[in-house]
Amino acid sequence: MFEPVPRELYRHPTVLVAQALLGKLLVRRTDEGDIWGRIVETEAYLARGDPGNHAARRRTERNSPLFGPPGTTYVYRTYGMHRIMNAVTQAEGTPEAILIRALEPLGGVELMRRHRRIHDLHRLARGPANVCAALGVDLAFNGHDLAQWPLILAEGDPPESAIVRTTRVGISDPQAAALELRYYLSDSPFVSRR
Questions:
Q1: pTM, whole model, 2 decimals?
Q2: What is the DSSP string of 7-19?
Q3: How far apart are CA 77 and CA 54, in angstroms?
Q4: Is residue 193 part of a domain?
Q5: CB of 190 within 8 A of CB of 103?
Q6: Residue ranges of the chain with pLDDT lower than 70?
Q7: Rounded CA gap, 65 and 142, in Å?
Q8: What is the CA radius of gyration of the chain?
Q9: pLDDT of residue 81
Q10: For position 84, which CATH number holds?
Q11: Cβ(51)–Cβ(62) below 8 Å
């Protein structure tokens, strides 16, 4: 039913991958059934000239998955409690990634509601921490291959709406916040912010 995206996709320029992931499916297999949603919002993080990238200063134990194989995950904790997931892009050794910012819930919605303890469909996976919470993605998925179960990035229908390019959200560094590296589907009511 779900076909992982080709690994070659992650080797294209990261800003193009950030746009290409719109419309793709993020699927989590659990003992209670599959949970999935359509990616409607992403952000690119680049190796050069991007102070928002966790590897901008140097490689550390925390950010080392960013240097890993393309098509793997970089999952980290923010504010001491929320988990955030990125898809690593580029060749090994080049720390670039795509933050998955929002999903349109499509399957396993009742499981998402239980994970998030809310009912509102539009809020289930709006924002990167909510994406991880809704799908039950935790730090155990750090470095996970997105072509392997129980978490895959799968093919989906091409977007029918325009792609909006804008500045990133929730970054305190003014230079990093000013970069237009955030992409979302213009007609989606599931994006985190317009």
A1: 0.96
A2: GGGGGS-HHHHHH
A3: 12
A4: no
A5: yes
A6: none
A7: 7
A8: 15
A9: 82
A10: 3.10.300.10
A11: no
